[in-house]
Amino acid sequence: MQEQLLLIAAGIGIMIGLSLLSQVFTKRKANFFLGIVILLIAIQLLFSWGAQSGYNNQPNAIPFWLLLNYNLSWPALWLFVKYQVDDNFQFKQMHLWLFLPAALEWGFQFWFSVLGLNLIEHTFWPILSEYIPVLSSVGVLVYFWVHYTNYRKSVNPKLQNKIVIAQLRLLTLMIGLSIMVLFWIVFSFIGWEYFQIIEYIISITILILAFLHFMDSQSFAHTGSKSKSIEFPNFEDDFELKKLNDTLIRKELFLKPNLPLKELALELGLPSRYVSYLINQYLNKNYKEYINHFRINYFLDKAATDEKNKKTLLALALESGFSSKSTFNQVFKTQMASSPSEYLKST
What is the residue-averaged pLDDT of the chain? Predict the structure, then answer.
């Protein structure tokens, strides 16, 4: 029975992990890093199944366990966590250095296998392959729980009700990982006789994640005319996009020289990433281009009145929400294909 549970959970985990990894070329980078974590966990379950069933000892067995590198898990988990608790986080090339221990681990494995040496006998190997991953994972999990608590306090209560399944899925994953790492530390001191506890925790976590994913994926096609995003299935894109434009115009929020995405999202009661998604997906603009579009239109409306003769162009630009002359000139020329003075002379 235990072998079947391990195999089923491993299979589901591999499917979820590969599905998340396939989103590497989309805007949902957080899912890619989560896919790395879940895939490694699934491979660990598959390894446990192979050990119990005897598959790992067969001469023709596929050595899938060579992919099992926990120095991949903690940097991937940290990047996933950063995307969850920091709306302004962006992946940069320097973050690739986080995966250096994983590259070193695979490098040592390959080199020692070529030389025919036993890597386990060296004292540095447990430090690289066990202590660094577990201690780093502890740091990532502590970082998550501290920042997630603060993040939850800042989220609009109405928004929390809309994303309850997504929150349950996130909490299930992080609670499962936290318990797993806790037992990992304990077993490092008392021995691995009760490693089955970790296997059960991982299996149950993956099965719950699969169930919550099914609940949140809306498996039956939506028959209405309103569009929905895959990442934010609890929101109607058409409705929220109209609310975004209407709110921005009605309250003239774009007139603020400093209007962070997070502030606008809080005004709308929507996640910052979702607001950014709406602007990118449906308007083909980034956030700054979107806000500056309203500011330029506001400037043109003012310049079409008698105010043009009473005030300087700089004064009109500052009243339209621009913070400086250089920014105004650059944005105006980009949007209107001419300088402000040239454009107004031609009209």
Answer: 84
